[in-house]
């Protein structure tokens, strides 16, 4: 879609046209995540627990990616909506360069602190070894990981969601093919010899596929094949005026994500009180949540793009219409997903692992945390107004209250004071999502996002 086309004609059709390629791309990426966890589950529950702990810690670092990424959505989409392609080009170049620089710094800090952080969650040497085997190479390739998100974000903000879809398909398929070959001595179900690298092989498959996806997207932006052409020269200098905006606009959203992720770290710590099986179940639950949330993610990203362009073109009513449709779509999709989760929890768990204890814990978990996505879907639909406008303070307020004034105290009371069964740990996630949704609704209705421009 060319500049302004997203704002013409039937807005719902434009949103779906922009969203479906994003959903397909995310769908395959999350399918990879699911398959990856299935392969790891063939090794042991300790391997699953190790990757779960590392992934939870890793989320704290990805906050930096989200700060710059969230800012870039509003900056790119609004400048493009205004018809200023030169400014759009410069913002894309700065997003890539600045994010890579931040990733180098973050990777250095994480390499030093990873092992001490792992010992906070477990003293099991097997679990710690699995986490380190999986983690170190992921950290080393952090700049590539961050940059791969940016090339896709830039293309979507220009109204092109098909190219990122193709890029994500290539990355996901590459990962799916490489996983069993790198992880096992013999590819399961065949006589094809593998490299028997275990969980390290899973990490290698991830960084290879991510690097390929980044190079494809970077080449497209560099050659100007899709509406915008970046320059190599522009990548080798920082523009502090733009970089300040990339930080300032995204900091509220980044703090919100940090608040959410750090609360997730504590939730994992509380889950570890119930044993390694509980940690493994929680890791599987995290993969399922990401997979089930795929339609919501696709709509949210596309809604933010359209809202940014609407506000850049001073079309506030169309922005409101986009939010309403996004909420309705998310609600329907999450209700359908929840019905499946409630009816078939045991079958879903058996896809990942054969350990009966983990499966038993997971059945309760699935029946509670998956339906809570209904409330999360409503929140995401409304929140697209904030990311599109660049008014991200509501993210911070809602996350702080729901996580730190609701979930964390509840988890402490449940596990340490009352020592209740693990089902109450899962219930805390649903209570958190409900409280966050209510706060998001209130902050949306005050209307400040309508007047925000970046």
TrEMBL record:
Subcellular location: Cell membrane
Domain of life: Bacteria
UniProt-recorded Gene Ontology molecular function terms: antiporter activity; xenobiotic transmembrane transporter activity
Spans traversing the lipid bilayer: 15-35, 47-76, 96-114, 134-155, 167-187, 199-222, 327-344, 364-386, 393-414, 420-444
GO cellular component: plasma membrane
Keywords: Antiport, Cell membrane, Ion transport, Membrane, Transmembrane, Transmembrane helix, Transport
Regions annotated as coiled coil: none
UniProt xrefs under InterPro entries: MATE_fam, MATE_MdtK, MdtK-like
Function (record text): Multidrug efflux pump.
Family statement: Belongs to the multi antimicrobial extrusion (MATE) (TC 2.A.66.1) family.
Protein name as it appears in the record: Probable multidrug resistance protein NorM
Organism: Acidilutibacter cellobiosedens
